[in-house]
Amino acid sequence: MFGKKKLSEKECSDIADKSEDVPSECLIFASVKAKLDSKNDPFAGMPGGAARAVRNAQIQRRMSTRHGQGVQGKKSSWF
């Protein structure tokens, strides 16, 4: 801690804009956390109901698709 300069919120925000490798001391700022979360969330710009609907549709698709079932695909049965 000695000789180490404490980063300001502006400096941390600039670091978060440039890369995802943000120092842990920057995570105390809510704006920096929000910026990192929005980078990781592909549905960040969507309204809440639409984002939820897309996520549910993706989950349903993933759960209903069987992989490696041969030429017949979903028509073949595993039991």
TrEMBL record:
It comes from the Eukaryota. This is Uncharacterized protein. It comes from Cylindrotheca closterium.
